[in-house]
Amino acid sequence: MADTFLSNIFNPVGIFIDDSNTIFLNNDQVSATVVTKLAANGAFLGNAPITAGFTDIATAHLTRDPLTGTLLALRSDGLLLGIDPNTLQVGSFFNIRDLPIDTSAIYDVATGITDAFGGLISPEFSTFGDITAIANGGGVDLFVTGLSQAQTFPFVLRIRFRGGAFQDAQVLFSSRADALALQPQAIRLTRGIAVNDQGTVLTTLPITPNVTPIEVPVAFNLNFTPGVDSPTIVGGGTVDVYSQGMDTDVAGNFYIATNSAGSTALGAAGEGALVYL
Asked: Are 96 and 128 a contacting pair, CB within 8 Å?
């Protein structure tokens, strides 16, 4: 049986829970979008605005820099913010749209082909969604989901930092399934993404069995190289689950929040679910 932990929160979107069970929650307060800090018992500990005024940037997702402990908030316009978890002081790191990003070799989960998608994925004009981070090779890898311009192709982007400095960024995955099936009603939202301590990254993307797209979990190693490695389609392409948010536990298991879009195989159309893999 589920209990209501905290109520009267308007439009909560991103959430992160640290090792001491302190909760950081991104929510829209109409006049500003804030990250709210809560104790493990739900007691209010403060908040920090990450936007001001009426805005559509409320969809910031949260993660943490595994080396510094800084809370990271990614806005849908690509701006990555750093938040001190103790003082809630907010600073801007960079905007993804301004980074040099390699889009020359992108793995298409719908066809198994690696190519440049005809130049149709341009991160500088894209909308961004979920973010996750993991320590790797003495640095940090960030994995981000996005939607290409005109919200046509959902994609996964990896950004690498080594020695505290930007090293490179590359679009790893996308899917032509929606376009191949010519589905005008297809889901046009960014997906969830998470990485576990074992170095496995998981997201969901549409594929095209029998022409009608379904959304499937896609797993890959954090060092994935398009054109060299192949991802794992979890469940063999039969598990229909769309992700809006995602996280892992210490054992490496994944939890997927589906929102109310897609995943009709899990229940009635329009129903959301929390899925465990």
From this structure: yes
Interval 207-232: pLDDT, tens: 876 666 788 899 999 999 999 999 99
For 48-84, write each residue's pLDDT tens digit. 887 755 555 556 788 999 999 998 989 888 999 999 9
Task: Report the alpha-carbon distance of residue 63 to residue 30 in Å, rounded.
Answer: 23
Q: Which residue has the higher pLDDT, 265 or 208?
A: 208
Long-range contacts at 113-117 (CB < 8 A, ≥ 24 apart): 114/226, 114/227, 117/153, 117/174, 117/176
In our burial notation (b when 16+ CB lie closer than 10 A, e otherwise), range 130-151 reads: bbbbbebeeebbbbbbbbbeeb
- Residue entry with tokens 């009426």: 54
**Angle subtended at Cα 236 by Cα 176 and Cα 259, rounded to the nearest 5 degrees:** 65
Sheet bearing 90-95, strands edge to edge: 61-64, 71-74, 79-83, 90-95
pLDDT the model gives residue 103: 97
Give 85's DSSP letter.
Answer: T
Cβ atoms of 174 and 154 closer than 8 Å:
yes
The torsion of the CA quartet 173, 204, 81, 12, rounded to 10 degrees, works out to 160
Distance CA 105, CA 91 (A): 33
The tokens of 18 are what?
Answer: 């640290």
